[in-house]
Amino acid sequence: AYTLSALGIHYYYMYEYAKANQVFSKYLELRPNDFYARLSLGGFYTKLKQFDKAEEIYLSMLEKFPGNLDVKLQLADTYLNNNKPDSCLAVIDRIIASPDDRATGYVAKGIYYSRVNNTDSALHYYREAKKVYPVYCAACDNNTGRIYFVNGQPDSARKYFQEVLDHDSTYTYSHFNLGVLEDQANNPGTAIKYFFQALNTAKASEEGFISHIQHHFGKGYHRPDEKTWKEFTDKVYI
């Protein structure tokens, strides 16, 4: 079983999610009650865009572990990816209702509203998270900076990204975002330094979401119509 687990993790980090899924399925046959194996399998189904299967696994896990924060966060994310926003928000509200998890729930709600391009609500929940966060909330300020960035306010964005790095010089996403800002400002040498730091500080295979992809390339775009343009700019890339 442990050899299969190690092989599944190897495939995961090689982005071979289908193979990882097969191996972890065999692992579960040997250890059907292993919590982290089931959590990983749900993650693989999400990677493979088999969201219904992922939901089934997370829901069954919540029956056994109703208070587990990791499972609730994964379920909320799966609902969002599966175009079930109401179900996603319901899970996040359950997280917020728990005093011990409230700060994480507010961050999750900010991320939800960022992903659906409701920036005012996103900023509100990042502020609420900072009020109750037990330590400094790097994700709150980084994601706030991201909102200013996509709304064409690079100076405000830079302020928040730099504040994150002043608290934690190893925060990967703020290095990346500052690299994007420097690239936009036609400072490729400085941009490369920030991108290198993003690679250097990433603990493993890191993922983030990007919308408004037009800001990441130094080129103009033809706008066939506003509806098509909005769909293009709002699209979320992982």
How would you portray this structure in words?
The structure is a single chain. By secondary structure, the chain is an all-alpha fold. Helix content is about 70%, strand content about 0%. It is built from 13 helices and no strands. Helix 2 runs antiparallel to helix 3 and helix 9 runs antiparallel to helix 10. The model has no long low-confidence stretch (mean pLDDT about 90).
Task: Name the features.
238 residues; mainly alpha
Mean pLDDT value: 91
Low-confidence stretches: none
The H/E string reads: HHHHHHHHHHHHH
Number of strands: 0
Structural class determined from secondary elements: mainly alpha
**What sort of overall outline do the alpha carbons produce when their principal axes are compared?**
globular
Share of β-strand residues: under 5%
* Biggest pleated-sheet summary: none
User: Could you estimate the helical fraction of the residues in percent?
Assistant: over 70%
Radius of gyration over C-alpha positions, nearest whole angstrom = 19 Å
Distance between the termini: 31 Å
How many helical stretches? Answer: 13
